[in-house]
């Protein structure tokens, strides 16, 4: 009905044009319309109602519909109450057609449609990112070509950051996730510089690597990040002097021994968490980054946590330290992207390790091998962290959780906070009971 404009009195010819258009679209009943259209005088108003009445008698439901909707439109448009009185059949009140309620309902329907489409698109993107696409460090061309095989080896996928023979530096390398990063990067052809506290564990891992990958070189450096000693960082600087560090894995981290209210957090635990997680990461990155900038390539990957995405009551200091890493890493990512360097923060949910105190893997808690493999295979893909730049949640169950939290629930609301709080209160209760039992056993 867009072609009908103005009030009924001044637009008879246009109204009649509409009739003609309706007539052309309609089938039977068109003669009734044609008769009306030929009336075309001031009397058209009356004829108009006659036409409406007449049209109702036609056998064509489509003509009837058209006439009725035109009638609706005209009444709504002209607000001509006389016209309404002339109509010989019941029509909805014109006021209700354009009532605020109807506008709101229409608006909500549009918003609902857009939001549902956005969620669907976002979920498909999540599935593609987690299950289908290779890491963004890999050219998609071979995957899109039917002639080339998409089976690039892990080492080929990681070559973007540095040639064969370049180095990967892994902090917190002797155990858990860090150890697995060291092993998988060695398999991908990187020489490995291993850093953590315990020299004996580092030496054992270095010999495991060289026995598995004979051409791989290793270096070890024992330092305690909690001490934040300049001399340790000077030794680290010496260790990387003259070598091409292509990959930095900022993995070292410390959490609370058990969930604890902030007011009761031991001061040394609080200081260690901030010193290791934040200062350690910043200082190591500052030593490594200038070389990467010079070579215009490299990967700076930092282990984050769901605790950084989601404020975690009773783990407040750890949660805050990981939130710090999230902000810092994303900001750094934007700073150095143009210099050819990939920065990625990986917020993990739980992974079996000494830190998590979980030994048996489950659907939600992978072992370090599966977890690290998912990280290395999807470098540069967001996984479940679509809304956070330079961040990836690649392990499938973690990705779905992170997607749900960031897209549907929200990470800072009272609902996730409440759930998180009662979960940590439960863990604290059990940990305290266990401590009591152990004390009792020792005393006995
Ligand atoms: N496991 C999880 O569920 C989980 C979840 C989210 C995020 N993360 C993050 O993932 C990272 C690794 O965690 P993980 O579970 O693999 O930990 P882990 O199994 O406890 O291993 C920690 C590693 O860091 C080293 N380390 C600890 N304190 C150190 C210090 N003060 N100075 C130097 N090295 C130190 C340890 O070796 P030494 O004892 O020999 O020094 C070990 O190699 C952490 O940043 C953690 O926050 C883990």
How far apart the termini lie comes to: 91 Å
Specify the helix fraction band: 55-70%
Main β-sheet, in a few words? 6 strands, parallel
Strand arrangement, major sheet: 3-2-1-4-5-6
Q: If you consult CATH, what is the topology of the largest domain?
A: Rossmann fold
**Tally of individual helices:** 18
Second-tier CATH architecture of the largest domain: 3-Layer(aba) Sandwich
Could you state the order of secondary-structure elements as H and E? HHHHHHHHHEHEHEHEHEHHEHHH
Question: How large is the radius of gyration?
Answer: 34 Å
SS class: alpha/beta
Structure notes:
This protein has helices spanning 12-25, 30-39, 44-56, 61-78, 81-86, 94-97, 100-132, 141-144, 154-158, 176-187, 199-212, 230-240, 267-295, 306-309, 316-336, 368-377, 396-409, 414-443, and strands at 167-171, 191-196, 218-222, 245-250, 298-305, 341-348. The protein folds into 2 domains: 9-90, no CATH class; 156-410, Rossmann fold (3-Layer(aba) Sandwich), CATH 3.40.50. With 444 residues, it is an alpha/beta fold. 57% of the residues lie in helices and 9% in strands. The N and C termini lie far apart (91 Å). The protein has a 6-stranded parallel beta sheet, sandwiched between helices. Helix 1 (12-25) packs antiparallel against helix 2 and helix 10 packs across helix 16 (368-377).
């Amino acid at each position: 009905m867009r072609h009908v404009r103005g009030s009924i009195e001044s637009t008879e010819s246009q109204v009649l044009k509409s009739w003609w258009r309706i007539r052309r679209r309609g089938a039977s009943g068109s003669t009734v319309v044609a008769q009306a259209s030929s009336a075309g005088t001031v009397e058209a108003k009356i004829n108009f109602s006659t036409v409406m009445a007449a049209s109702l008698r036609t056998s064509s439901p489509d003509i009837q519909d058209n006439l009725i909707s035109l009638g609706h439109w005209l009444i709504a448009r002209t607000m001509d109450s006389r016209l309404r009185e002339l109509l010989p059949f019941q029509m909805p009140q014109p006021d209700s057609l354009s009532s605020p309620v109807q506008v709101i309902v229409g608006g909500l329907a549009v918003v609902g449609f857009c939001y549902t489409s956005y969620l669907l698109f976002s979920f498909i993107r999540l599935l593609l990112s987690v299950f289908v696409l290779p890491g963004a460090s890999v050219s998609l061309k071979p995957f899109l070509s039917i002639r080339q095989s998409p089976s690039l080896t892990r080492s080929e996928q990681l070559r973007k950051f540095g040639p064969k023979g370049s180095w990967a530096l892994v902090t917190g390398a002797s155990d858990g996730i860090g150890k697995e990063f060291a092993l998988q990067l060695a398999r991908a052809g990187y020489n490995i510089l291993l850093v953590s506290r315990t020299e004996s564990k580092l030496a054992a891992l270095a010999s495991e690597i060289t026995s598995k990958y004979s051409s791989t070189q290793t270096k070890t450096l024992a330092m305690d990040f909690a001490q934040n000693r300049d001399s340790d960082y000077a030794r680290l600087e010496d260790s990387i002097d003259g070598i091409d560090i292509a990959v930095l894995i900022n993995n070292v981290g410390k959490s609370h021994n058990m969930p604890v209210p902030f007011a009761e957090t031991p001061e040394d635990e609080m200081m260690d968490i901030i010193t290791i997680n934040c200062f350690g990461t910043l200082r190591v990155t500052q030593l490594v980054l200038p070389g990467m900038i010079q070579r215009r390539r490299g990967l700076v990957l930092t282990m984050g946590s769901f605790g950084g995405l989601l404020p975690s009551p009773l783990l407040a200091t750890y949660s805050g330290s990981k939130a710090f890493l999230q902000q810092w890493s994303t900001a750094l990512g934007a700073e150095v992207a143009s210099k050819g360097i990939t920065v990625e923060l990986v917020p993990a949910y739980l992974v079996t390790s000494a830190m998590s105190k979980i030994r048996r893997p489950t659907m939600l808690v992978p072992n370090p091998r599966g977890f690290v493999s998912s990280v290395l295979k999807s470098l540069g893909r967001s996984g479940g962290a679509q809304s956070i730049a330079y961040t990836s949640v690649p392990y499938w169950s973690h990705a779905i959780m992170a997607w749900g939290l960031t897209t549907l629930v929200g990470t800072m609301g009272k609902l996730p906070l409440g759930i998180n709080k009662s979960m940590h209160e439960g863990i604290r209760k059990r940990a305290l009971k266990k401590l009591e039992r152990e004390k009792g056993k020792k005393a006995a």
